[in-house]
Specification:
With 221 residues, this protein is mostly helical. Helix content is 66%, strand content 0%. α2 runs parallel beside α5, α6 packs across α8 and α7 runs antiparallel to α8. The longest helix is centred in the first third of the chain and has 22 residues. The protein starts with 6 loop residues before the first helix and ends with a helix.
């Protein structure tokens, strides 16, 4: 079974409805694969070529075929087997991660990352093609928070990411969540408080964040 590596992602998968849990694991693992791709890329052109490979993989027909692009890669095969590979959000996420290949990272690149990576991720997890701003607001806020958590608190990009995320505070606070989307609510509310306070988050699932997660899962806030 393919599992995401992040402790936070694993916990969020545990809160997913049983019928969605397999998809959750694979989509988070796919997001982590893209993160590793960008992290290990030193030349933007090479990174773009690697992302283009994933774009071709997602565009291929979902039916099993040993000659298909990416066949034999355990994650690719699992995404196709679960009929997830062609969810619109997955392809959108590629645009977001590709934006991080730009140097230096300007506001336009950060916003593209937020809406494409975060919005695409949340839409894919919710299995929704809805682009009315809901998933893209929640996912955008969360993605900028998550990016900041992977940077040094003194990094100017982290501070800019948190400042940009503030534009989604009110829309996200007004969202009404279905029970089936509890993992996304938990992730969003974790990020919301730090963004509202202007606090660059610490990396990982700290004890304080774990307690907050449990509180949000129980009370919704």
């Amino acid at each position: 079974m393919i599992e995401p590596m992040s402790p936070l992602a694993r916990l969020l998968c545990a809160y997913a409805p049983p019928a969605r849990r397999a998809a959750y694991r694979l989509i988070w693992a796919y997001d982590e694969r893209l993160a590793a791709l960008v992290r290990s890329t030193t030349q933007p052109m090479i990174g773009q070529m690697r992302i283009a490979w994933w774009d071709e993989v997602l565009a291929a027909a979902p039916a099993g075929d040993a000659g298909m692009k990416g066949a034999g890669d355990p994650l690719v095969d699992a995404l196709r087997a679960e009929d997830i590979a062609q969810r619109p959000g997955l392809a959108r996420m590629l645009d977001g991660w590709e934006a991080l290949l730009e140097t230096p990272l300007d506001e336009e690149a950060l916003l593209l990352f937020a809406q494409a990576r975060g919005g695409g991720l949340f839409a894919a997890l919710a299995d929704s093609a809805d682009d009315d701003g809901g998933w893209y607001a929640a996912g955008g806020l969360w993605a900028l928070w998550d990016l900041a958590a992977h940077l040094s608190p003194e990094d100017l990009v982290a501070a800019r990411a948190m400042a940009l995320a503030r534009r989604w505070l009110d829309p996200v606070d007004a969202m009404r969540w279905d029970r089936a989307d509890r993992p996304l609510q938990i992730a969003t509310r974790l990020a919301w408080r730090d963004v509202a306070r202007g606090t660059v988050p610490q990396p990982g699932l700290t004890p304080a964040r774990y307690v907050r997660l449990l509180r949000i899962a129980t009370l919704g806030r």
